[in-house]
Design a protein that fits this description.
This protein is mostly beta strands and about 170 residues long. The protein is built from one helix and five strands. It has a domain at about 30-145: OB fold (Dihydrolipoamide Acetyltransferase, E2P). Helices cover about 5% and strands about 35% of the residues. Strand 1 and strand 2 (about 55-65) form a beta hairpin. It is globular and about 55 Å long. The two termini are about 30 Å apart. It comes from Selenomonas ruminantium. This is DUF669 domain-containing protein.
């Protein structure tokens, strides 16, 4: 799978570097617009309750005052979790409630939607308590959440009458 990150460029041994990265942003629980920034195909190995299945690992980006929060979430392609896959495709406006859809995973990067995010505490391998952002639920797509903008997060583009925003 090709990496969709434009920063995925090899450095030479003597290249100049400047990007210090950013701190991991924990979102306060709430509803946020997101943009799909990456999609990876993977495999869920199975468990006592669910057989091994394909999975889609999505990276969702949420713009905040502190910077852009990146949230990874898995969609396991199993009939037991079909409702969650449907909710995701409804959230990005690719499916209507009650209709059938052939899932198209090839053009997800750049899709925008809205979801309820909630922080979750966990303990890492070294015994340190950490936090992560989880998608609690996806909301059906509503154009009102995404005014004409130069950012999928909702920043408005100044336009004169009759201009098309692309």
């Amino acid at each position: 799978m090709a990496d969709n990150n434009s920063n995925n460029v090899a450095l030479d041994w003597n290249d100049t570097i400047e990007n210090d990265g950013q701190e991991f942003i924990i979102l306060p629980e709430g509803d946020y617009n997101f943009v799909v920034s990456n999609f990876e195909r993977g495999r869920f190995p199975g468990s006592a309750k669910m057989q091994a299945s394909n999975k889609a690992t999505l990276t969702l980006q949420v713009e905040t005052e502190e910077g852009v929060a990146s949230i990874r979430t898995d969609l396991i392609l199993n009939r037991m979790l079909e409702w969650r896959i449907s909710a995701f495709f409804r959230a990005i406006g690719r499916k209507k409630h009650g209709e059938k859809l052939v899932m198209n995973w090839n053009n997800l990067v750049g899709a925008k939607g809205r979801a309820h995010f909630k922080p979750r505490k966990y303990t890492d391998r070294d015994g340190n308590e950490k936090q992560a952002n989880d998608v609690e639920r996806f909301y059906d797509y509503d154009e009102k959440n995404f005014p004409a903008s130069n950012s999928a997060f909702g920043e408005t583009i100044p336009m004169s009458n009759g201009q098309i925003p692309f």
